[in-house]
Structure to design on (357 residues):
């Protein structure tokens, strides 16, 4: 039995039960007070007794009950169809989504009730799924392109070397080594991004101030070569998460701040904060002016941008801020980008306080 038929039968059953209750009331509280023997008032008028009333009332009561059941079935069928119509719309959209079409929405009209709330929740879920699937599709396409690039370069170098009798073997080995290093960096970045998305890590207390100091110390040689001054400070800020991932997060932010900075007299400031709204790491750097409409693109995977790309060994693979954002989200936090009016960027990572034991 379908849900609509079960509801129709249920409505008919309720109507029939109400009819039987009325008949029982008539029998128990009315007919029982009528005597069952012959009643002779003495003036020649026929006065029916209880048996006469039962014989006269039973056929009409039977037909009335049949009519009530029929009306209950038909009315219940129509009412159930009207009540279940929103579920049919939701089911149709769900079937389209199961076939891969995520662009359809229920968009249920009418007053706010349980069905309207269900439809709105379902539409919001489809929007998130569609956005996530589109992001994963775009990420897979970009990753395939990025991984294919070093392989294509290696193949070209080998083909040229194979046809060139005067090839420089040392130069070829050096160039292939550079291409191989870049491919390894890209693969490790993709694995790190996948690990952050799966949240497959053990939580432990991590002091963001210590993590920041370690990241700055590791990147000081790069900053010295580029003429960038780094300042680090702040207060202890202990969060719960993966020390390795949080170290990678801060390292990516500091590295990004150093590489995308001024060509002369650049500055980077790293601060940790313990505020009422949560714990934060703020990385601020000088640099070229970043337009507000490009902020969302900066955290997209492989979105380096022409003005952000560098022609040296620290060009990166375009996953620095994307990895930082995914790591922050994996720790139930967020990453906020704010352009500096004088040029450069302010990156703030908000992380929640650890839950009490």
């Amino acid at each position: 039995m379908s849900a609509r038929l079960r509801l129709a039968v249920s409505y008919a059953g309720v109507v029939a039960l109400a009819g039987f209750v009325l008949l029982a009331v008539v029998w128990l509280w009315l007919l029982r007070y009528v005597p069952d023997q012959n009643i002779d008032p003495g003036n020649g008028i026929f006065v029916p007794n209880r048996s006469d009333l039962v014989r006269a009332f039973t056929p009409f009561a039977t037909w009335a009950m049949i009519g009530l059941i029929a009306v209950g079935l038909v009315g219940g069928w129509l009412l159930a169809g009207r009540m279940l119509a929103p579920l049919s719309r939701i089911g149709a959209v769900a079937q389209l989504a199961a076939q891969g079409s995520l662009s359809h929405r229920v968009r249920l009209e009418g007053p706010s009730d349980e069905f309207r709330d269900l439809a709105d929740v379902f539409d919001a879920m489809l929007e998130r799924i569609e956005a996530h699937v589109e992001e994963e599709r775009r990420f897979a396409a970009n990753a395939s392109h990025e991984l294919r690039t070093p392989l294509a370069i290696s193949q070209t170098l080998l083909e040229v070397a194979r046809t060139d009798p005067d090839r420089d073997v040392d130069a070829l080995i050096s160039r292939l080594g550079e291409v191989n290093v870049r491919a390894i960096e890209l693969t490790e970045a993709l694995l790190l991004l996948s690990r952050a998305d799966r949240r497959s890590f053990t939580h432990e207390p991590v002091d963001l101030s210590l993590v920041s100091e370690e990241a700055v110390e590791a990147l000081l040689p790069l900053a010295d070569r580029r003429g960038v001054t780094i300042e680090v400070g702040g207060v202890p800020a202990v969060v719960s998460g993966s020390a390795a991932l949080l170290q990678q997060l801060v390292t990516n932010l500091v590295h990004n701040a150093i590489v995308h900075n001024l060509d002369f007299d650049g500055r980077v400031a790293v601060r940790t904060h313990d505020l009422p709204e949560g714990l934060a790491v703020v990385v601020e750097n000088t640099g070229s002016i970043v337009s507000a409409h490009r902020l969302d693109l900066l955290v997209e995977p492989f979105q380096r941008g022409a003005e952000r790309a560098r022609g040296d060994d620290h060009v990166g693979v375009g996953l620095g801020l994307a990895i930082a954002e995914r790591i922050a989200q994996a720790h139930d936090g967020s990453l906020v980008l704010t352009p500096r009016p004088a040029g450069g960027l302010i990156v703030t990572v908000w992380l929640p306080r650890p839950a009490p034991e």
